[in-house]
Amino acid sequence: MAAAAITPPADGAREWLRLGRVAAAHQRKAEALAAEEALAHDRSLPILLGAYAALQRAGAFDRCLGLMPEITHHPAAQGQSARERIQRLRLGLAGQLAMFDLIPQRRACVLNTVPDRLCYVLHNSLPFASGGYGTRAHGLSQGLAEAGLDVIVTTRPGFPGDVAAHRTTPEPEKKDGTAPRPAGSDTPDEPEIIDGITYTRIVRPSRKGLRYVQYVPAAAQALEAHFRTHRPALVMAASNHLVALPALIAARRLGLPFVYEVRGFWEVTRLSRDAGYRDTATYEMQERLETEVCLAADRVLTLTEPMRDELVRRGVPADRIALAPNACDPRRFTPAPRDAALAAELGIPERVPVIGYVGTFVDYEGLDDLARACATLKARGRAFRLLLVGNETTSADGHGPIAEAIRAIATSGDFADWLIMPGRVPHEDVARWYSLIDICPFPRKPWPVCEMVSPMKPLEALAMEKAVLVPNLRALSAMIAPDRTGLVHAPGDPLALADALDRLLDDPALRQRLGRAGRAWVEAERTWSRVAQGVADILRAIMTDDAFPGGARA
Question: CB burial class (10 A; 0-12, 13-18, 19+) of residue 322?
Fold first, then answer.
């Protein structure tokens, strides 16, 4: 092609675009090279539009943004059809990166802020979502309040009406006796007080029917109004960028300092399930958006050392990153004797140990590996019961593909009559089910997301004096001192897991010793009060530092 003389130039440009699309099947970046060749031949509007699309597919997002002014002001861009096509391009991946142009320059604070007041912006929260994300937010908020901060929590604009018509847990009865407002209402709920923490909602905009580049500016405007009402001294937002970027824009408009709490890398979670996802423009954009928010924030908090390492790899300065690890409240998670009535109802013999898991059934949790390990235990002649409490993200009744795979393994391993899967249980009954469990394995897969992101469930199990097993993954093994507070086994290896379980089944005294030491470690190192005190110190330093415009108060 480079040696061929094709006339007129537009024909040569079109041929380069066609060639690039073919070459992309073998090497995605080759499409960007072909697009540049096309532009060197011709810059008519069709070629500009085609090159933009090609560059976007190749992940050359900055180059796309550089072309957009030329496209917009092209003489042929005045017709309705051309304007509609240009608008479709603006709504695409490269347009998401343009949202960072909405962040204004730092300025002095324009609000009469309330001292020590923090507006904490979340993806979801109690009482609508009771998973690990909401639990962490609530525990950290309580700890920050104990440390003297005035915490006001709000969820992203549109939540919860943009995800479900019902709460995942019942709404508390209102004090005046009126019926609770349904989750999908267009009228904002009155602020809810849960364990002393104020939760607020912003009904609009909803993500429903909006593309990213439409939602972000609208959400930023709504959050700006929210911050004007509550007058925080600092804004903190938790993952991911869809939550954090609008909050960052709104905070900067008002001259408020902004902290980003990186709880995970959602693109890495998907990558763990789909190895081919890494070589896509979507993956590149998700990583870029997360990184750009971190770079724009005044400070970044994250959960684990591996997550900090990943952020540094992406270009975030190490001295701007602080750890705020997962924790739990040992006052809520306390040891309890086995619930004899529930055990009898389930047919669990008095002296038979129970291996158990309580939580969401997700592929990376490795529950299938746990079932295979239990099949090995049965073949060795061990007596036990396997109790798996929870459901799948794809199924409200717990009968999704993961549960079915576990049942199939139990059947083939001849322990189906020892498998107990009640599905999801009421939140207030979780302690009863936990009381039945003697051994708590967390056999997460050796996938990138599990290497980096730490769960909270092992901490809660430790606080309840359970014997905990975890694979040798950095994010998990940091919680466990081998043979002191729990056991560690090779990741992704059901036989190694079976050996560790076998050891615990054979030694009740070891289970008891590990459980007691585990709770003592949680009480000393991983309470929300302890973690939040460190976070509060960081936030107060920013609130009162003249180096952060808007931080120091008159």
Answer: middle
